[in-house]
Amino acid sequence: MTCRTHQNRWRAALSAVLCGAVAALIMVASPAKLHAQAPAGAAGAGRGAVAPAEALFTSAQAVAGRAAYQQNCASCHGASVDDGNTAPPLRGAAFLGKYARKPAADLFTYVSTKMPQGNPGSLGAAEYARIIAYVLQQNGFATGRREFASDAAALASVTLPAPPGGRGGGGGLSAGVKLPPAPKKANPLDKITPVTDALLQNPPTGEWLTWRRGFDYQGFSPLKQITKSNVNNLRVAWTWTLSPGANEATPLVHDGVMFLHSPGDKLEAIDAATGDLLWQYARILPPGVNAGNKRMISIYGNKVYMGTPTST
Ligand code: HEC
Hints:
This protein is an alpha+beta fold. The chain is built from nine helices and eight strands.
């Protein structure tokens, strides 16, 4: 292992991470920010999970409701509940914006007294309940043991929750809305500059151009943002898996690009800020030739250099 000289404890920790695999660390300036992020992660983890006790209808109701919907509602609201030509979508943000977080009685009363348009109230109460179960299922609600009641008084005390995945409240798009194209992602390779002798002699503070960073072999970064007092705020920003095998090379960093040697004689260029792969090269070794361990790669001019065997 080449990572062994440590100036102090935090640098030892950083070195250990860089040696084991490749990981980028970010500074999180204020602990408040971390707090703000935590609930979002927690909600993401529970996405799609609706406890059976909270479910609003049974799967038998939804299955029967599907047939009844196709027969009585699809002609206007569409076969997929949101693709009708003459009636509003019964799925998505606009629909849920009206009915989610409200008493289930609102939806039941509306449908059972106004629909199907032209022949309102023509279906039995249980049939309306089944159709609503199917429509709710199409909006992402889970089935459970409780039946969707077929009378408005019982449904007055049942609240339609915000559906899993956050649809219904603020999230989701209204039908027919088209998003503009996403902005083009900046690629640091587009702006990468050649590595000159002068740069190698005197690397800019944010760069790591040679094995131990400079020809004095100190392996020391002059960057000052990470200090003893804030090192405990470091968090993993991204991780990258190297191909299996022994790895001893130190990553190089130039113009925001991290160059990595990966076992089996592979070279990878990663966006150092995001962990996105920008470029890669994999040597196809002659049959029976083992790439062996590599201590280092180099960068000079507009090329990255990697030693690789031609025969055993
Ligand atoms: C003949 C066409 C037609 C049929 C059949 C029909 N609907 Fe509708 N439905 C409409 C129209 C038109 C509206 C919009 C009414 C309005 O805005 O006043 C509507 C509105 C709705 C709404 C309110 C949507 C919203 O965004 O507020 C629901 C819920 C609904 N229908 C459910 C059903 C169900 C369930 C059935 C089958 C039992 C059904 N409809 C059958 C035409 C139809």
